[in-house]
Amino acid sequence: MRLNNFIKNNKSSFVPGIIIPSLLFIVCTSLLSVFFPTATDYYLSIVKNALFTNLNWLYVLVVTLFVFFLLFLFLSKYGNIKLGANDAKPEFSFFSWISMLFAAGMGIGLMYFSVAEPLSHYADSSLQGLSMEERSKDAQLYTFFHWGIHAWAIYGVVGLSLAYFTYRYRLPLSLRSCFYPLLKDKINGRAGDVVDMFALCSTFFGITTTLGFGVMQLSAGLVHIGILPHVSFTYQVIIVLVIMTISIASATSGVAKGVKFLSQLNIVAAVILLLFVLIFGPTTFLFGSLSEGIGYYINAFFNLTFNTHAYEPERQEWFFNWTILYWAWWISWSPYVGLFIAKISKGRTIREFIGAVLLIPTLFNFLWMSFFGNSAIWLDQHQAQGSLSAMIDQADLLLFKFFEYFPMSHVVSIYSLFIIFIFFVTSADSGIYVMNNISSNNAEQSPKWQLTFWGAMLAIVSLVLLNAGGLQALQTMTLITALPFAIIMLLFCYSLIKGLLIDSEYYDRPLSHATSSWSGAFWKERLERIVAYHEKKDVNQYLVKTVKPAFEELKQEFESNGIIAKVESALSTSPHFVEIKIQHENMADFIYGVRNEAKTVSDYLRNEGNAPDITDEQTYVPHTYFGDNRAGYDIQYFTKNEMISDVLKHYERFIALSSDQKNEIFLGQNLRETD
């Protein structure tokens, strides 16, 4: 209650229903990890291992669905839809956009795992029966798999759903908005708060654990190059304070300034380091292995995508500790990364968004992991004599040990530390921005102290857990939350498809069929009908006074031309209809009918003051139907002569189709039924 009053009295944009329960959960979980780190990690690990062992197939299935869902949207007509109004323009240049989404999504992981992961796969005991060449190729393949399209498809589903409903439907940039087609205005209630609480806690835990483990790598690197005398908690405190001070300054300056600048600096610095490894490493081998590795990945794509290693028990432990753990980790990070890339993607088309998010970071990851990983494996085979692969349990130091085999190793190690530092800052500043966005339900204006609050929370919790040894427990907790959020993401996909169908129908819907013959002759009568919403009796009267006389007149004219037609109707009992039918012996009957159909009127139209006066939830319209079950349409504006003209159009179509032998399958129904 006090926190609630504090929020109201200090002009905060925090939403009490989100921030209060989220902070309680964060504090309680952190305290458990601090005071009972071993026990907490032990019991959480039991849950995690149970999920990974028994439901690994579900992780594989949902991630596979995300990949093919985005590929479907990319290739479909929905790819042309913009994330925003039809005339919306992108807020950021293409380079700035790519730099920011990439730095937020993968940056620090590339530095930490670029050497460690390929060497770990290469040295894995379950692959020892293979030749050195086969292990090298598989190491690159699995690294590509874990850092490729599948990882970015997870981010892409959340980011696309958020961007679409935020900029197309003009809803808040909040995970709850992704449920609008399912929940409508209920997203503003308790259900929406729960979804945002989940996203806020997941984002906080993910960034906290990454910050804590990253500080360990930074401090180990600083000791390795001689800047720090030894690893100590005091030095780690200083590192965290420096990182968070810069991150808070960047976040408070806004996405268009600090975050954008640091992201661009990050990507440029990373490319320079990548070129250094390429030039001073085994260059020819690296280019050849990259080409072969991409081909190997494409060739093995479907096998990798669906493989659960059910027939390879010796590979199960590796599968759980790498692939399933990665899928869970990417899913747990997806609320944070998805929110951030949605924030910077206004004005892009769905096809542009999916193409950029899936392909560009994936290709860069392939370059990075191939040049670093294959260089490390090549050096381990030709110069290090296995000493690099022997250090796979010391991932914090492995990158710096790797640089010892390059010229200017000391300078390069310092430069790599600078990149790691900037990657941390970009992850932290975008994380601060996203957490404030979630906790304030995308408020347009938030006081800067809120951003400072989140930065301070990240720093304090990460340092306390680092000192108490509770980071592993918090990481395990984060991985456990991934599976329920994966189910939520499946609902995002369903909701997005539903929204796109409505979107496409709205913008592609042509003018009413009944208006095609309009001129200005009866414009006052037309307007009167447009603004009048009818009861059932009004449509029945239209059937009696307009439709039935038109059909009777047509019947007489058909008979004068030697064609027998019948007019049938039911106007006193439901369902109310009138139809004209021409029966045939050897082909389907021609039927043109009009029935009285109910139509639901939207709440917002009924509640609008400056709109036609509508009191009931339903209105009624005369709706056509046909003998071949084609979709009918509303004909409430037709005069009698226009009604006759419309029937003749359909009869002419029927005769034209009947004259073509290939249409026998549709028009020979009566003959087939007789046989």
From TrEMBL:
Spell out the subcellular localization from the entry. Answer: Cell membrane
- Annotated TM spans: 12-36, 56-74, 94-115, 144-167, 194-213, 233-255, 267-298, 318-341, 353-371, 405-428, 449-471, 477-497
Cellular component terms, GO, for this chain's entry?
Answer: plasma membrane
Topology relative to the membrane: Multi-pass membrane protein
Query: Key word S-adenosyl-L-methionine present in the record?
Result: no
Q: What is its main location?
A: membrane
Q: What keywords are annotated for this sequence in UniProt? A: Cell membrane, Membrane, Transmembrane, Transmembrane helix, Transport
Family statement drawn from the similarity comment of this UniProt entry:
Belongs to the BCCT transporter (TC 2.A.15) family.
The entry's protein name is Choline/glycine/proline betaine transport protein
Its organism's taxonomic lineage begins at: Bacteria, Pseudomonadati, Bacteroidota, Sphingobacteriia, Sphingobacteriales
